[in-house]
Amino acid sequence: MLRELARIACVTSTDFASVIDTPSSANQQLLDALHQDLDAAGFRLDPIAELLGSEAMDAFARDQITPALWRLAHTAGQDQSLATVIRLFQLGQSVGRQDLDAVFERTGCPGLLELGLLEEHQDGYRAAVALTPHASDTSGELWVAHDLGAHQRPGVLRTDHVLGIGHASTTLAQITLRPRVRRALDLGTGCGIQLFHLLAHADHVTATDLSERALGFARFNLLLNHRQLRLDPADLGRRVSLRAGNLFEPVRGELFDLIASNPPFVITPRQEGHQEMFTYRDGGMAGDRLVRTLIEQLPAYLNPGGSAQMLANWEIPSGEQPWHARIGDWFAAELDVWVIQREQSSPSVYAETWLRDSSQTEDLTGYQQEYEAYLNDFATRAVGSVGFGYVYLAKPGSPRSTHRNFEAIGHPVEQPLAPYLQRDLETLEQLRAAGESWIHWHLEVAEDVTEERHQRPGAEHPGVILLRQGAGLRRSEILDTAQAGFISACDGELSINQLANALDALIGEGEEDFMPTLLSGVERLIRHGFLRKV
Ligand SMILES: C[S@@+](CC[C@H](N)C(=O)[O-])C[C@H]1O[C@@H](n2cnc3c(N)ncnc32)[C@H](O)[C@@H]1O
What we know:
Layout: H1 2-11, H2 28-40, H3 45-61, H4 66-74, H5 80-89, H6 97-103, H7 108-114, E1 118-121, E2 124-127, E3 130-136, E4 140-146, H8 167-175, E5 181-187, H9 193-198, E6 202-209, H10 212-224, E7 240-244, E8 256-261, H11 289-297, E9 302-317, H12 325-328, E10 336-345, H13 347-357, H14 364-380, E11 383-394, E12 404-408, H15 418-434, E13 442-445, E14 449-454, E15 464-469, E16 476-479, H16 481-488, E17 491-495, H17 496-507, H18 514-527, E18 531-533
Parallel strand pairs: 5-6, 5-8, 6-7, 8-9, 10-12
Antiparallel strand pairs: 1-2, 3-4, 9-11, 10-11, 13-17, 13-18, 14-15, 15-16
């Protein structure tokens, strides 16, 4: 009780060290002891994968814990310490005091309780939160605390559930460009996953969230992993600022070089008298209003030359308009914009996805009502489908022509994608800087590009010539005869202009638009990384 009161008092200090129902980061010595105990138990990705085996690991990635439990029950001579930690923090099982004391020698059971990581039950102790190892490309492995998922704890998720590292989290981390910057912002930080990655290339990161619980988890994770993240626990503020509040409220008037956000973009029917919402995915606004608000407000928080990346859903009205007509209108004219639509779902598929996500499939009557609510909601705005994808926007450092690119890429892409996005953006800058002189460039075909020729059996010439990219966005382009001829001669020896003139003389047949059509196709192949400047 005393501890609870002390914690409540601490919340008002707004450093998020002791938010109720959140792991406590008030005692650094205990956090360091926990770090040592987890390390000694080998609670790392490779040993876990070795102990559980690939089938149980794959099942766990699908939120199924039974194969892992089965494996732990049937493996002789296993590492008991590691098995105990997995049972506790990954599988949500009850563990006895003796086993806990044996593994957590330095932290001890009282220490785990003080950290807010354990709950006492009749049959022993259970984890109050999940701890998940996460491989970061720059900081080594981290342990990330977050709320236990529906597969790790019985009952429905709490509405202020703090999400673990999901597919969307890693996607955003992998598409985020990583230039060295002074100030970065992670809007809607949750357990802090984007923040950890941003710390590798930003001098200072501000992480915001509407939920104080989320900020409590983020602080705990920062301090548990301070060595890997190269933070001074006694001076966290030098590198990180954690702030509670709605959207940009906590950073009003401030400017950043880079903004990353995996916002609560899920479209949710707003029903009268039905206030329950999951903060981790629902921003509380009608339709895609939250995404639109972010896109409209973001530029005011970017330094000239700065950029922002986020994941988003957007509604696509029924009718003949292209998918990007509506979202395209939300971006201010002075911005460079690149939107990659990865999925387009019908209203019913969308409803099913998100009802499943919150386990609302369990109660059939409720499920049907909620499902109908989605369909009614979409119908009121004549929504034909919902797009999901990646949004990039950049604020030019000086006035210049801007670039807009809306691409629909539904096939699997190579992750991490960021280096390829970066390369395309750099090519665009080079083209912009070259002006008309780009036609004097010498080109070669990128190493990951292959050509496919398809023809009817017995036909003299191919009906379709297809160029495929093996890496990055893995785009493909159908070539006309002139482009195919151009590509086959791209060995860096002749300039674009020389090659195009030679082809014009050979196959142009005096057509006026032969050269402009060929050059615009070539420019597109350069922009998309099929052809490189030598
Ligand atoms: C989808 S989760 C993303 C968590 C984490 N950044 C990641 O990439 O996994 C969205 C986060 O936004 C927070 N959030 C919800 N509404 C918000 C709002 N109006 N302003 C700021 N953050 C909000 C939620 O609490 C949640 O932590």
